[in-house]
Amino acid sequence: MIMNFNDSYSHVFWDDNEQLRSTKFQDIFFSKNGIEEARHVFMEGNSIPWNFKSGFHIGELGFGTGLNLFLALKLWREWNTSQEVLRFTSFEINPLPGKVIRKALLKFPEIKHILEEFLLHWEKGETKIKLSNLDFELIVGDARETIILFNQKVDCWFLDGFSPKTNPEMWEGKLVRRLADRTKPGGTVATFSSAGMVQNNLSQAGFTIERIQGFGKKKHMVRGKLTNG
Ligand SMILES: C[S@@+](CC[C@H](N)C(=O)[O-])C[C@H]1O[C@@H](n2cnc3c(N)ncnc32)[C@H](O)[C@@H]1O
User: Fold this and answer.
1) pLDDT higher than threshold 70 for residue 87
2) Tell me, what's the pLDDT at 94?
3) Which residue from 63, 67, 138 has its CB within 8 A of the most atoms of ligand 1, so it is best to mutate?
4) Residue 155, helix vs strand vs coil
5) What is the SS3 assignment for 67?
6) Domain spans, the chain
7) 3-state secondary structure of 101
8) pTM of the complete model
9) Which residue of 7, 51, 124, 192 shows the fewest CB atoms closer than 10 Å?
10) Within its chain, how far is the Cα of 85 from the centroid?
11) Quick check: CB of 71 below 6 Å from ligand 1?
């Protein structure tokens, strides 16, 4: 599939603090310390890099600027010195143009090289991208519908939709149950949110969850392990 970004720029804007924000959800894509936030919430929340193993597959809801992917690939390349490939599948309703992604991630020099490698393909509209050590797929559309098309099982999930207050669709029970079904036994999940709805839906889907310290101003976040899938 080839993406067309022509009219996809109106759903985001730069706020007064030069942070990328969604017009519809009025929410930011990541905090000022985005890379440290991604490290704390999604990597450490899923015990990455300690859990990495051959054939590791990450699933993500909400690709946004791809920051989580770029950090995960950086850690994978540091962990794995051979040609082993990290698989990464991300679900996104509104893929961002490369120029927006580039501007949003400019302040993170540690991922600049990977970002440019990736954008060479992304800017051609490619949704399946192979780089050295990476096999990536973007599944475009509403995750509630596209998750049905996904028939593989992942080692862990990054749940990175906008806040459940404004974007409850990304956290609803039916979708979360489908995620559990698409998780390997003992697989994990992590999210910045500790909302009751998120905790309940994850528990009911078979994840044993743990509320741990959140990043920055966020008191708590949630991580879980599939124990009843
Ligand atoms: C908080 S942002 C993701 C941040 C991202 N991980 C990053 O590194 O920039 C949430 C993303 O979820 C996407 N999204 C919201 N609702 C969705 C849905 N129903 N299906 C798929 N993607 C959705 C938004 O378009 C947005 O890109």
Assistant:
1) yes
2) 93
3) 63
4) strand
5) helix
6) 12-226
7) helix
8) 0.96
9) 7
10) 18
11) no
